[in-house]
Amino acid sequence: MGSLLVSLLLLLIFVGGTAAYLLTARQYDSAESVATSYDEWTQDGILEFYWGEHIHLGHYGSPPRQKDFRQAKYDFVHEMVKWGGLDCPPGTTLLDVGCGIGGSSRMLAKDYGFDVTAVTISPQQVERATQLTPAGLSAKFMVDDAMALSFPDNSFDVVWSLEAGPHMPDKAVFARELLRVLKPGGKLVVGDWNQRDDRRKPLNSWEKPVMKQLLDQWSHPEFSSIEGFSELLEATEMVRGQVETADWAKETLPSWIDSIWQGIIRPQGLVKFGFSGFIKSVREVPTLLLMRLAFGSGLCRFGMFRAVKAQ
């Protein structure tokens, strides 16, 4: 009986989500459209309820293993710090570009002693991040545009960005801004959703509509490829040597189904957010399934980038 109820609930989620998905979209229009989307997701509290304070994917190990959804997100931050070589003394200044509601920023300040400045395009995210940050923790939040950061050149020892790049309409400008505010000799560490390099293997007939939906549903103008973005970073002529990259698609892949599963194992959300909240939640299911398809098939990749700024 229990398995039947779960099956019926999954069917309801899929059908309801598909209907809402087909009727609405959140296409990228401008930085304001991104800010509006994140303001809405933050105000209703649904995303935070199911995903926690880390609005990014989790790291499930290599090879991936079963893990608590939220613990995987904490583990991702630790793995990114390690992979990025951020063995820095306490008080090292760090800019978190695209900080969400500040989960990574707080970890970087609390667990690693960074003096964190964190920026997002969403005023509501800044408000919520500030609410969640304990007094005395060296992490402050502000509204800023990653395409035109308000900081002077050579301001930070480390620049960190996680899953912000897909919202940037001009990846070359984004690359320049990340490096411009980094001090000479400072470290850049970026983790992002990327697509396969279509210069080498063009998208086929089924991949094109899938990619369009992934862009339209979550206010993304476009995805870069790992190869393309690393080339843009190097083209700034602000990088010492070469940009180092990795693909963490396998390590993060379980996140997509786990994020859907949260709606099953946390039914209290139905009480907390009511029917309208249920509809808002299930409308994301088709996109999450398409993301699982894209990352599992190689259409999308999880790009990791690290670089040192030239002296």
From TrEMBL:
Biological-process GO terms, alphabetical: methylation
Region spans: SAM motif II: 154-162
Superkingdom of this protein's organism: Bacteria
Gene3D superfamilies xrefs: Vaccinia Virus protein VP39
Domain Methyltransferase type: start-end pairs: 95-190
Pfam families (alphabetical): Methyltransf_11
Key words of the record: Methyltransferase, S-adenosyl-L-methionine, Transferase
Keyword Chloroplast: no
Region annotation SAM motif III: where it falls in the sequence: 181-190
Stretches for region SAM motif I: 94-103
PANTHER family hit by this protein: GERANYL DIPHOSPHATE 2-C-METHYLTRANSFERASE (PTHR44068:SF11), ZGC:194242 (PTHR44068)
Protein family membership: Belongs to the class I-like SAM-binding methyltransferase superfamily. gTMT family.
Name the record gives this protein: SAM-dependent methyltransferase
Source organism of the structure: Leptolyngbya foveolarum
